[in-house]
Amino acid sequence: ISSLFSIGKTVEGRDIWCLRINSNAKGETPSSKPGALYIGNHHAREHLSNEVPLLFAAWLFDHKNDADIRQYISGLDIYIIPMLNPDGAEFDIKTGSYKYQRKNMSYNADKSRGVDLNRNYDSWWCESGASTYPGSDTYCGPRAFSEPESQAVKKFIEARRNLKTHISYHSYASTILYPWGGQEADIANAKDRTAFINIATAMGKLTGYHPEKSSDMYVATGDSCDWAYAAAGIFAFTFELEGNSFYPGAAIINRTVTSNIKAAVYLLSVTDNPYKVI
């Protein structure tokens, strides 16, 4: 019921691995089944955002014979990319002393390192909430999709028009965010807006997280979920996981994963038709 493939290479040449869970379709070939996509670790220091999708995948395997999970595996195309930024994540932990690394490991013109991958998508690129200064933690890059990691996501999504829902995991704020993040205006399409709000509210009840429009927290342009919705019509949500720091300790993992699995499974339940929540 699963297959593993790389969606691309990082700046330092690491594979960006994707796990596909599907009753019959294997490998990279797209299918027509409604698709759900889960991505972790846009930001290197947000290690909890890697644990949640990875352990969600393990949970799906452990529960593959449950009636509802069996139905999702049969009827949907489930993609899990636990670590989009392995270069930055490895740099952050490799010495045993955390580096608070957020960005990837690109070499910038001023000899600084890294682009903020979640400011590098072509959605109001490098406007409010992003920086043109290469040394900034929110550096948007020299152009939209300048980075191999964000390019890989772009190509992956554009090749799979069956994708209907998406969660991008981050930390930490205990919130569930929906578009727009790059502007303060609401989503213009009333039907889409209502579906976003209702899905976010339901997932908020399962996690204890606060659902809100992303820009109500702060405006951030070049965001992956804004781009996924604008470019592909995907109901895309940013999860800011719980905790009180980027390094909350291993004790938080089980609690966080348990509640977030409930939300991830709920998203599967609406992936066939997100509008059914209206």
Strand content: 15-25%
| CA-based gyration radius | 17 Å
**Mean pLDDT rating:** 97
Based on Cα principal axes, name the global outline.
globular
Which runs of at least 5 residues are low in confidence (pLDDT < 50)? Answer: none
CATH evolutionary superfamily: Zn peptidases
- Encode the helix/strand succession as letters: EEEHHEHHEEHEHHEH
Helical coverage, percent range: 25-40%
Q: Which fold does the CATH topology refer to?
A: Aminopeptidase
Separate helix tally = 8
Write down the domain tally.
Answer: 1
The profile of the biggest β sheet is:
8 strands, mixed
The CATH architecture would be 3-Layer(aba) Sandwich
Describe it for me?
This protein is α/β, with parallel strands linked by helices. It has one domain: Aminopeptidase (3-Layer(aba) Sandwich), CATH 3.40.630. Helix content is 33%, strand content 18%. It has 8 helices and 8 strands, in the order E-E-E-H-H-E-H-H-E-E-H-E-H-H-E-H. The chain has helices spanning 48-62, 67-75, 86-93, 148-158, 190-207, 214-217, 224-232, 253-271; strands at 2-9, 15-21, 35-39, 77-81, 163-171, 175-178, 210-213, 235-241. It has an 8-stranded mixed beta sheet, with helices on both faces. Helix 1 (48-62) crosses helix 8 (253-271), helix 4 packs parallel to helix 7 (224-232) and helix 5 (190-207) runs antiparallel to helix 8. The mean pLDDT is 97.
